[in-house]
Amino acid sequence: MTDSILELYVNDGLSDEEIDQQRATYGPLTGDVRELIQLALQTRVDADDVARAREHLAAAREILERDREDGPYGTRFNDSGRFRNWGNAAIGLRNAIAPIGGIHEDDDGRVWTDIHLGPVYEGPAGHVHGGVSALLLDQILGDAARISGYPGMTGTLAIRYRKRTPLGALRVEAKLDRVEGRKAFVVGHIADSEGICVEAEGIFIAPVWMVQQRDSFAEIPRPE
Ligand SMILES: CCCCCCCC(=O)SCCNC(=O)CCNC(=O)[C@H](O)C(C)(C)COP(=O)(O)OP(=O)(O)OC[C@H]1O[C@@H](n2cnc3c(N)ncnc32)[C@H](O)[C@@H]1OP(=O)(O)O
Q: When you count CB atoms within 10 A of the terminal residue's CB, does the N or C end of the chain come out lower?
């Protein structure tokens, strides 16, 4: 198990320029697919137009499949220490279902993101799916642990849904509360314009292999 996850941490030897080039090439593709996901839900065009659109999509798929990888993206890095987890389900640059565009960190260790959740994240009518809230909190609480110097895997994520979370503009934020051995305790929440909708406490545990990896870096790597 330990070995299998480490196999997905790969130095792919790309230069910084090549990484920037990939970002410029594939980032907009992800944006297009994200819009398509929403359009698939919202379009009202008739069956003929849907059939025509699907022909175009089939043509696009045929081009994109000419050269593709198998399996997960994993975590890739290069010699200058740039880390990419572009497949990450919450924040990955190349993942069209990832709702988070980027995170901010304050000097006091608070981590936050402002996001806009569209209708594809719906659970209860007009409101955010509870599992999507958990996805957001897992990511932002985990980032708060990492940015504070204690990266770890989620051991426990306790969530309290205080009130329904509307689709639309939301802020997700988190902060390290305390550390006990390999365990980092992090608290956070999701808020709409009227206040907190969801609260969470997470325990992020650094497995032994991660502590050993961490010791080989001057600072905690920041994925991009
Ligand atoms: C940097 C890349 C990470 C990105 C993460 C992004 C966020 C994620 O989605 S992670 C995915 C979801 N999480 C997982 O898949 C984790 C799966 N679980 C595991 O890998 C392991 O069980 C793991 C790492 C959590 C703990 O394993 P291990 O290091 O062997 O723990 P172990 O030695 O038994 O216990 C260490 C301490 O943690 C406590 N502990 C163990 N498991 C848990 C848990 N699930 N919850 C709370 N505490 C726990 C133990 O009681 C012990 O406490 P103490 O030191 O006080 O006695």
A: N
The rounded distance, in Å, linking the Cα atoms of 161 and 134 is 10
* Interatomic CA distance for residues 175 and 196, integer angstroms: 15
Task: Find where tokens 């204690």 sit.
Answer: 150
Per-residue pLDDT tens digits for 114-154: 999 999 999 999 999 999 999 999 999 999 999 999 999 99
Q: What is the ipTM of this complex?
A: 0.94
109 vs 220: CA distance, rounded Å:
14
Q: Ligand 1: which atom is nearest the Cα of residue 146?
A: 1
To test ligand 1's pocket by mutation, which of 205, 214, 224 has the most ligand atoms within 8 angstroms of CB?
A: 205
Residue 221 has pLDDT above 80, yes or no: no
Annotation: CATH topology of 99-224: Thiol Ester Dehydrase; Chain A (3.10.129)
What is the location of CATH 3.10.129.10 in the chain?
A: 99-224
